[in-house]
Amino acid sequence: MLTGHKPMRFRREGRHLELELSRGVDIRHLSELDEVLWVALSSPAAGLEFDRRTLELLDADRDGRIRTREVRDAAKWLDSVLLDLSILEQGRAIVPLSQLRADTDSGRAVGLAARRILANLGKPEADQIALLDLGDRSRIESAVSANGDGVIDAGATEDPALILAIDAILRITGGERDLSGTQGIGQASVAQFFAEYARFRNWLEAERTLTESQRAVLLPFGDVTAAAFRSFEAVEAALDQFFGLCQLVAYDRAVEQAAILCPGLPHIL
Fold first, then answer.
1. Which of 19, 31, 47, 86 has the fewest beta carbons closer than 10 A?
2. CB 189 within 8 A of CB 169
């Protein structure tokens, strides 16, 4: 049964009474509907002719089913955010900012988020926000360097030392993808960088205690070993291609003739 005297309307469908949800005020009083009057107490959160993202949000506990409690909670949230629920009757994907409540925590939070999004999109003077404004998160986040995702790039600071540090961490670790779509550094990449640094420092300290025979193994080219290694890295791919082709020729001599007739074959392989 319904508590109090609320302006709720029903229609009869066969042997059942169904609540009419044609007015915004019907949403407000949905939580008062006795469960015996619900057609079903739950439904799958997928496979319905309904917006997929909305279904995901309704399924608050992510158990794959939407229950009456979750529908009630969503209705209460809407009522706590919107001043006039009748704007839902218009079926528009636009919400005027003036319709966001300032007397509730939820309303203030949504209002603040909406204005920040519009400012990030270059529309700080806009008086309404549309569903399309929320579609491209990377575009929204790219306007700010500190977007709360825990990843920052060199543009987040003007300190030359910090810029160099961020650049070094990016070069060593590859960094992490920021919400804006750029590469930055986060907790994981910073931890990886210092772990690599510790290993390198230990290697340098160990090098100082090497015997001559050990040094000859570790540094076969003496002081120019590092330069020699960089030279090797520059031609490593070409060397791999060459020896790979040698293996193919050893397997099938026809490959040798093909390589002569088609100089680009090693690159294709």
1. 47
2. yes
Considering only CA atoms, which of 47, 2, 50 is closest in space to residue 28? 2
Task: Convert the pLDDT of each residue in 40-62 to its tens digit.
Answer: 889 998 888 888 888 999 999 99
Residues 81 and 31 both lie in one domain: yes
Report how many domains make up the chain: 3
C-alpha–C-alpha distance, residues 100 and 82, integer Å: 5
Backbone angles phi, psi at 94, to 5 degrees: -135, 140
Say whether pTM exceeds 0.70: no
Same domain (yes/no): 196, 228: no
DSSP-assigned letter for residue 176: E
75 pLDDT more than 80? yes
Query: Which residues share a beta bridge with 265?
Result: none
Taking the mean position of all CA atoms in its chain, how far away is CA 179?
6
Q: What is the pLDDT of residues 145-178, one digit of tens each?
A: 566 667 887 777 788 888 899 999 999 999 888 7
pLDDT digits (tens, 9 = 90+) for 15-41: 777 777 778 788 887 878 888 777 788
Confidence of residue 2 (pLDDT cuts 50, 70, 90): very low
Yes or no: say if 64 and 45 are a contact pair by the CB < 8 Å rule: yes
d(C-alpha 33, C-alpha 25), whole Å:
13
Q: Which residues constitute the domain of residue 41?
A: 10-140
Cα 67 from Cα 72, distance rounded (Å): 9
User: Which residue from 166, 163, 172, 213 is spatially nearest to 193, judged by alpha carbons?
Assistant: 172
